[in-house]
Structures are given as structure tokens and as C-alpha cells.
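Notebook, bench 3.
Goal today: get a predicted structure for Acetate CoA-transferase from Porphyromonas macacae so we can plan the truncation constructs. The sequence was checked against the plasmid map this morning, with no discrepancies at the termini. Length recorded as 220 residues. Pasting the sequence as submitted so the record is complete.
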Amino acid sequence: MDKNEIRETIAKRVAFELKDGDVVNLGIGLPTMVPNYLSEGVRVLLQSENGMIGMGPAPKEGEEDANWVNAGGGSISAIPGAATFDSATSFGIIRGGHVDVSVLGALEVDEKGDLANWIIPGKKAPGMGGAMDLLIGTRLVILAMEHTAKGCPKILKKCHLPLTAQGQVDLIITEMCVIEVRKGKGLYVTEINPAFSKEDIIAATEAELHFVEDLKPMRQ
């Protein structure tokens, strides 16, 4: 699979987890592709921690407005009925448990659902941003991530990089499979991409994996 196929496969599968009416926060990068693949009739409200619920698609080139940006600084639009507010209110919404789903990327994730996704030591980073609040305050936390990085596993027995939060990840979706993080029990593969075998997935993963008895093909 090339890079574009990998990203598309992951985004398509994540889209199945979003339900009509969900308030959803999307991390930068791959997660922003997810709304392109929502099932017919499913409408979600996209929340941005810098102060909006009801983000629309990116505007056409030349139609950008410098006053309308997402948390990553990218140009956005607003759907009818969208609401804007200050950051304090936005984080009150997140910390108050009013965001249904967060879709985030990952540098590393481990068997306990610990996530590292904000900094590699020695490299400059703007800060953790709202990721730690989203991990703690959201009902369902989904990682949309490539299974490996330059051939090295990203799903580990224990994270090595500085953590964003401990034990908050619920679901890991990669180009190879879907993995549930079951608190106190470990990682359970529930769906597998037919392009890969169990042996392929085990070889690409440092953490111990359990394959459920009713293992299903990965939905697309």
C-alpha cells in the first residue's frame, strides 16, 4: 500500500465509528480526512478547541478568511448554526464531557492505552495544546495512525516518549487492523484488513495482541 492508500484506508474505517449528531474533535493531519467518508445520512458537529462547534470544509483557494482557522491554523468555514466562543468556554465543553469522539494521531501507544503524540525529545514543538484535555474529557478516543513508522512498531509494550495521557485510548485503527484497548486486559484485534495476515500484524507490533474469536474483515 502506498501512503495515500494507507491514509484513505484508515480514514474510511474511522468514519464508521461516528454517529449522526456526534460532537467530534479531529486532530491535525490524517484525522481531518475522516469527514470525507461519513456514511450517507450521518452528520457530525466538528469542534475546534480554539473556539468553534460547527466547522465546515476548508474554503476554496482564494476564499480563505484569516479570522476563520482551526486549532492547527488551517483555514476553515462554518456550517449553518455553527457557534463560536472563547477558548475558556471551548475547554469547558471538552472538560465537561460534551465532546463525544476525539480522533487523534499517535507517535506511540502502548498496551495500557497510554498515548505519546506531542513531542520527540530534542525537537521543537509548539506545546501539547488541547490533546491532554481531549483525552481525559472525551467519551470515545480513537487513534487514527499508521501501524509502523519507517518499519518500526508504534504500538508498544510501553511508550518511550513523553506521554500525553495515561490509559485513555479506547480504539486504535491502522491500515492493518482495528484494535480495542480493553482496560486491564490488553489489546484485542477485532477486525483485520484482508491484505494482511495475523502474522504480518504480529510482526509489525511490539505489544502483545489478542485476536477475538469472531474476527471480522476490516470495514471499508
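The two ends are 15 Å apart (CA to CA). Residues 3-15 form the longest helix (13 residues).
Flagging this for group meeting.
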